[in-house]
Design a protein that fits this description.
Length: about 400
């Protein structure tokens, strides 16, 4: 782990238990950031780098850390050798832990001015500027808000705005993150998968893969980075979550047509954006279910179900939406059979999730008449159908 010495501004490398106490910086990337190579080894920051716009951010954050008694600070722009794919992968997989273990995190909001004198109109205007900061829209800053034990916010001229605790109500309102997650160093597993996904649903990343990579730590997942895989990264993340959790809220997303116009889908979401509005979905162990697994034909899962009048099946998930109504009831989702594409010899009938109706309102009558069945749900139902339809024509 590379750290910046807050006195000399030189990089120093530490391993394992030898890592000293340190502060950490959270910010949004701008033009002319100082890189690892710009730090220039033993000589500190090179002369050309000191003229970059990002140098002021390093100097100011290091000075603040030194003033607070911290000998070192970690800054992502210059403490990762991004030319080394191995180091980049290790750093991204370790990032949640690094923020978690930091003594303090300085959240620098480059587009927020210092607070005005306390006048009603000016205060309201400043609060709107604070809420509209770009920092609240970026994917990577989500874990940087949640993971540390202490977050201190600073304005564009490095005026202190307040701590995460002092700004708790505003942060909850802006981000939708539960106050209990912001107020303490809670285990992330205390929050449902859907709720944690909802925290990322309005955030953006420059690269599609980073939608998944920036939230791995929130789900305690480690996986290799494969830039170029696109939306497959988020699918891999969900598969890793499934391997270690039986939380059905992973499947309680709703289709966002702007992202994915297909109504026939797998049980996995295309993006965190499909968990928008899922912040109230929590685990609800109503049914005893069997372990599920990923097979070469898709997800194999046993669920209670009820046949629906329009030739579909409603399956019940072990989760409920605490925001939907006062009555506690499982979330239901629609499945449609792909039996017309199945050739003789296929033992288990495949299904696809039908998202055109959204999620189902489950009644007590439906629950009482529920049966169990094992379902095979392909990752790409349309591709699967095309494959078997083509094979069937060849067989005729």
């Amino acid at each position: 782990m590379w750290l910046v010495n807050t006195t000399s501004l030189k990089l120093e490398e530490f391993f394992g238990n030898d890592v000293p106490p340190y502060a950490i910086l959270s910010h949004t990337w701008e033009t002319e950031e100082v890189s690892f190579q710009d730090m220039d080894g033993e000589r500190g920051i090179c002369e050309a780098a000191s003229r970059k716009q990002g140098f002021v951010k390093i100097m100011k954050s290091a000075a603040q850390a030194a003033a607070d008694g911290h000998g070192y600070i970690w800054i992502d722009t210059c403490c990762i050798d991004k030319k080394s794919s191995a180091e980049l992968s290790e750093s991204i997989n370790s990032m949640f832990r690094w923020y978690h273990q930091a003594d303090v995190c300085y959240a620098y909001l480059a587009d927020v001015p210092r607070p005005p004198p306390v006048y009603p109109d000016s205060t309201t205007q400043w609060e709107a500027q604070f809420a509209c900061s770009r920092w609240f829209t970026r994917g990577w800053t989500l874990q940087e808000l949640i993971a540390p034990s202490d977050v201190e916010f600073y304005s564009e001229n490095w005026t202190r705005l307040g701590s995460r605790i002092e700004l708790l109500n505003a942060l909850h309102h802006i981000t939708g993150i539960a106050k209990s997650a912001l107020a303490s160093h809670k285990d992330m597993d205390e929050f449902s998968v859907a709720e944690r996904m909802s925290w990322a649903s309005n955030r953006k990343t420059t690269r599609r893969e980073d939608e998944a990579y920036c939230i791995m730590g929130i789900f305690n997942v480690n996986m290799p980075l494969l830039y170029g895989e696109g939306e497959k990264a988020f699918l891999r993340l969900q598969e890793h979550i499934l391997q270690k959790s039986d939380d059905h809220s992973l499947f309680a997303w709703t289709r966002q047509s702007a992202l994915h116009n297909l109504e026939w889908r797998s049980l996995f979401a295309a993006s965190p954006a499909e968990f928008l509005g899922a912040g109230g979905i929590v685990e609800y162990k109503r049914f005893r279910t069997k372990p599920y697994s990923i097979t070469n034909q898709g997800l194999r899962i046993s669920l209670p179900f009820k046949e629906h009048p329009d030739s579909m099946i409603v399956v019940f998930l072990n989760c409920h939406d605490r925001n939907a109504s006062q009555r506690v009831a499982p979330v239901g989702i629609y499945l449609e059979s792909l039996s017309k594409y199945v050739l003789p010899g296929i033992l288990e009938e495949p299904y696809t999730r039908f998202t055109g109706k959204g999620n189902c309102v489950v009644t007590e009558e439906m629950i009482l008449g529920a049966k169990f069945r094992t379902f095979i749900i392909p990752d790409r139902p349309i591709t699967w159908c095309e494959k078997w339809a083509t094979t069937g024509r060849h067989a005729d």
